[in-house]
């Protein structure tokens, strides 16, 4: 749940060194389904994590590489997120904002949010090669975006799409 967004040629993230092992939701759903159908898993705690833990800056660098261009990066200090959360907790009408910015506590923990998955894969009978890495997920994402942009260029009279 690291704060990362991509909007109109603008990347944003935090300056926190926290590392998170992102996992594709499709893999989480598949592993959960396998676990629910396996009676030998009953009562066991399974923790799911991606293949590698990433910092926000590493994810941004990966996206820049896959997009084939450098982006304007805006880094939000975690202290600003913390202050924003504290201010939004003061009013009832901004409590949703405060709740959603709770990830600031995760970012300041200096924890690596990753666990070895070998035991989980063995229990579920899954091969690690079948898990989609963040890099593969983003490669597919960027390929889809570029294809859609090419289609738009062919169908659009706009002249501000460049390749």
Automatic annotation (TrEMBL):
It comes from the Eukaryota. This is Divinyl chlorophyllide a 8-vinyl-reductase, chloroplastic. One of its GO terms (cellular component) is photosystem II. It comes from Olea europaea subsp. europaea. One of its GO terms (biological process) is photosynthesis. SUPFAM superfamilies: NAD(P)-binding Rossmann-fold domains. InterPro entries: HCF244-like, NAD(P)-bd_dom_sf. Keywords: Photosynthesis, Photosystem II.
